[in-house]
Specification:
By secondary structure, the protein is α/β, with parallel strands linked by helices. It folds into 2 domains: 64 residues, Alpha-Beta Plaits (2-Layer Sandwich); 251 residues, Alpha-Beta Barrel (TIM Barrel). The chain is built from 11 helices and 14 strands. The structure holds phosphoenolpyruvate (PEP) and manganese (II) ion. The site of phosphoenolpyruvate (PEP) has 9 residues, from loops.
Length: 339
């Protein structure tokens, strides 16, 4: 259920309602919007009748059920969009945010080169995997903690916040101690133990849609993270499996406006993993900006032909600069309404 406070409700009235919600066995998730405060009362659905009586409390405007199975992630649970701050970068606000870098951290030189390329072209965060979810156990699995150290070192040198993947709940503490944003990959989108673990973390989570995940399932996965206490979730469309074999996956561009209607969370697009071939990354990136995504996740490698992972879809430095130039004018038009 959601409890919508009156716009003039004071802090004492809000505290009373929160205490009362907790006293009847629910968790209160408070969302303070510009206009008013909304409280999500999360718990056993059978208590609807009890919660409805909050309507008689001072400062309460109305009590309504949240119809979707995802509650905290639902648009109804919040006034306005969630804007997630990572260093000086804000995702979900007026700025269009580009996160770029290699698929995997391979060496100090490779990472530093990639970081300066993406920074100079205008990206605002650096990506790079230290723990890699590979289809084959014989493929490069990532540099692990050594890779995390290189990422942190590169952040010190460039000022770019770091996005990197965490593959299991036992790794969360370690990855969180180095990263600025914890990535949960497509293959782990329904690893509920991991979702709960990153839900207890203090860093934002970039949650990728699985190849076989419906949007409702994706939102339920976000709900796991939020229900564990972490409201800072960035959703990422990265292509799904369809009957089409001409590309690695099929970018579900329609996921963006549909998700934006259903949730207040930021939505970004990863065209690199969706298409799997570098020459199609630019047109898909443009489509993602045009359709209203809040940002992009792009694989860039200084020497894609030498990449240990995903070289075929990685952009060379000059192609990435071209992409940044070309999306700028589209972003200006599309995001005008935010300013
Ligand atoms: C990645 O971002 O490098 C990655 C492995 O992506 P996904 O989980 O979408 O396959
Ligand atoms: Mn990759």
């Amino acid at each position: 259920m959601i409890i919508v406070m009156k716009s003039k409700a004071n802090q004492q009235e809000l505290d009373n309602v929160i205490n009362w919600i907790e006293s009847v066995g629910y968790e209160a998730h408070v969302s303070k919007g510009v206009e008013r405060t909304i409280i999500g009362a999360i718990g056993d659905e059978r208590g609807k009748v009890v919660l409805k009586s909050a309507e008689n409390m001072p400062g309460v405007e109305k009590v309504m059920p949240i119809l979707q199975p995802y509650k905290l992630a639902s648009r109804e649970a919040k006034d306005g969009n969630t804007v997630i701050k990572v260093g000086n970068v804000e995702i979900g606000g007026p700025e269009f945010v580009v996160i770029a870098g290699p698929c995997a951290v391979e060496s100090e030189e490779q990472l530093m080169e990639a970081a300066s390329v993406v920074k100079n072209a205008g990206a605002s965060m650096l990506r790079g995997g230290a723990f890699k979810p590979r289809t084959s156990p014989y493929s490069f699995q990532g540099m692990e903690e050594e890779g995390l150290k290189l990422l942190a070192q590169t952040r010190e040198k460039t000022g770019l916040p770091i996005v990197t993947e965490v593959m299991s709940s036992s790794q969360v503490e370690l990855v969180e101690s180095y990263a600025d944003v914890l990535q949960v990959g497509a293959r782990n989108v329904q690893n509920f133990a991991l979702l709960k673990a990153v839900g207890h973390a203090k860093k934002p989570v970039l949650l990728k849609r699985g190849m076989m995940t419906t949007l409702e399932e994706l939102l339920m996965s976000a709900e796991y993270i939020m229900a564990s206490g972490n409201d800072h979730v960035i959703l990422c469309e990265r292509g799904i499996r369809t009957f089409e074999t001409a590309m690695r996956n099929t970018l579900d561009i329609s996921a963006v406006p549909v998700l934006k209607e259903k949730t207040h969370l930021p939505v970004i697009v990863d065209p690199s993993h969706a298409i799997g071939q570098w020459r199609f990354v630019l047109p898909l990136a443009k489509a993602a900006v045009a359709v209203g995504a809040d940002g992009l996740l792009i694989e860039v490698h200084p020497h894609p032909e030498q990449a240990l992972c995903d070289g075929a879809q990685s952009l060379k430095p000059e192609k990435f600069s071209k992409l940044m130039d070309e999306i700028e004018s589209i972003a200006k038009i599309v995001r005008k309404g935010y300013a």
